[in-house]
Amino acid sequence: MSTKPQSVASSERSWIDRFFKLQENNTNVRTEVVAGLTTFLTMVYIIFVNPDLLSVAGMPKDGVFIATILASIVGTTAMALMANYPFALAPGMGLNAFFAFTVAAVVGWQGALALVFIEGILFIILSATKFRSLLIDAIPMSLKAAISAGIGLFIALIGLVNGGIVVADPATMVTLGDLTSPVALTALFGLLVAALLYAFKVKGALVWSIAAATLFGMLPGIGVSGEFTGIVSLPAWSSFMSTAFKLDFSGVFTAASLGMMLSLFMVDLFDTAGTLVGVSTQAGYLDEDGNLPRSGSAFMADAIATVAGALFGTSTTTTYVESASGVAAGGRTGLTSIVVALLFAVALFFSPLVGLVPAAATAPALIVVGVLMMQNVKNVDWSDFTQALPGFLTIVAMPFTYSIANGIGMGFISWAVINTIVKNKNKSNLVINILAVVFAIYFVFIK
Fold first, then answer.
1. Pairwise CA distance, residues 319 & 79, whole Å
2. Which of 240, 262, 252, 266 is nearest to 110 (CA)?
3. Distance between CA 16 and CA 13 in Å, rounded?
4. CA distance linking residue 258 with residue 104, whole number of Å
5. b/e code 293-323 from CB counts within 10 Å (16+ = b)
6. Would you list the DSSP string of 386-425?
7. How many Å apart are CA 397 and CA 409, to the nearest integer?
8. Is 381 left (phi over 0), alpha (psi -120 to 50) or beta?
9. Integer Cα distance of 24 and 104 in angstroms
10. Whole-angstrom distance, CA of residue 142 vs CA of residue 386
11. What are phi and psi of 329, to 5 degrees?
12. Widest CA span in the chain
């Protein structure tokens, strides 16, 4: 009786070993499970932040909560099965802000979902070829880094506003808010918790900071958190159906949508590519030429996730840089991703917690993500003014004009103009020039 369970366990492990190539990657089931749990804890904050952000566009939080989880499950599972990498996917930070504050403001959230869907289909087509990789290579490193840093500032600004730390002012446009208000106190408390947890390298720091800020918001005299209705419940499928498959294509095939479509395309392109390269470098996946094996499969999984997310009712789904935490814990194969997907499935049954979390509690997460993304500013060559000015305009235009698209456009235009005038053939290329013309037309005749 005692040998049969051992035989079954051995058989199951042997199948897992063969499918995910655990031995070839010098890992085992236990290590992959721990790595999956680590990655999940570092990125699960998205199930609280994403519904809060997209609700600005008029989308129901319960529906977005389910859509966020389903998109994460589909994308992460696709990455595991198609590319066998320990990368997890979810609706991207920055992309969700662009969706809510820019795209949905013009075409509505149903139209915004349609744009994301079209973008995903386009990426599926491009991922089947080498065009996606060639396009990434054509964009200068300084602009890639500036785009990431600018998005970080934009996200941080949203967090500061949601936390009541920065408010509008008729004289100076923005100013310091009332830091003694319940909303600001909740946000500052959450930010302090997040900072301390990060300093002590605690896994899941953002999740714990959101939880701490939510509890703080329940204190007498604060009262910014929602009403406690329980912890576990069945998924609110009726709310999910109010966002799922609600794509509206009627207003997306217009000139005004061109710039937003291009911006969605470019941001998703750089976000995915940067994450894949960065995490793959840490994991030791890159070959001697600096190329990522199975990159086509990884890009395809990312594209499929974007299409699925749009159908479910959420903004662009992309590969998460938090996957690096799982890699650091020893994750080396798609089994890590499968564990993350399973944990997201379990999270479906904790929707009452979303109603508890106020915007002030998720604001610190936005600020911290902004801090992390700002690290890319060091990759801008500030000693070369032909790179420094376009990089600077890219970074500051995003928060100052409240638009990721404006920042990308100003960066491309300034890069093309400066390097063309000084006849810098090493930095001026056809791709940049074409994109600059497209954005110039958008700014002058459409926007």
1. 9
2. 252
3. 5
4. 14
5. eebbbbbbbbbbbbbbbbbbbbbbbbbbbbb
6. HHHHHHHHHHHHHHHTT-HHHHHHHHHHHHHHHHHHTT-T
7. 9
8. beta
9. 46
10. 10
11. -85, 0
12. 81
Amino acid at residue number 250:
S
pLDDT level of residue 133 (50, 70, 90 thresholds): low
CB 159 within 8 A of CB 183: no
Q: CB neighbours (10 Å) of residue 207? A: 22
Single-letter amino acid, residue 116: V
Closest CA to 53 of 87, 118, 102, 114: 102
Q: CB 180: neighbour CB atoms within 10 A?
A: 7
- pTM for the model stands at 0.77
Query: Pick from 175, 208, 176: which is nearest to 192 by CA?
Result: 208
H-state helical runs in 90-140: 95-98, 104-127, 131-138
Which carries the bigger pLDDT value, residue 108 or residue 324?
A: 108
Which is it for the CA torsion 13, 14, 17, 18, positive or negative? negative
- Rounded to the nearest 5°, which phi and psi values hold at 318? -145, 170
Tokens of 58: 């008029």
Q: How many helices (H) and strands (E) does the chain have?
A: 20, 4
- How does pLDDT run across 171-184, given as a tens digit for each residue? 999 999 999 999 99
Beta-strand runs (E) in 202-287: none
Give the DSSP letter of residue 219: S
Q: Are 116 and 302 in contact (CB under 8 A)?
A: no
Residue with token string 């700002």: 374
Q: Which amino acid, residue 82? A: M
> What is the predicted pLDDT for the residue at 282?
64
What is the dihedral sign for C-alpha 187, 188, 193, 196?
Answer: positive
Q: Which of 406, 416, 420, 421 is nearest to 436 (CA)?
A: 416
Residue 421 has pLDDT above 70, yes or no: yes
